[in-house]
Amino acid sequence: MTTQTAKTTLSATKIVSLAFAAVLGVAIISITGHVQAGALHDAAHDVRHATGFPCH
Known about the structure:
Elements: H1 2-34, H2 37-51
């Protein structure tokens, strides 16, 4: 009986993780779809500078 409970919990954890990833993915796509290209470029550019990645 303990083994079945562990499998059920693991299965529920996977479902919650997949649901969260799906919602997060849809949210990111929706938000970036409505942002103007200049603002998105500036945000990516600032992240590149903050992490020390050369972009020029």
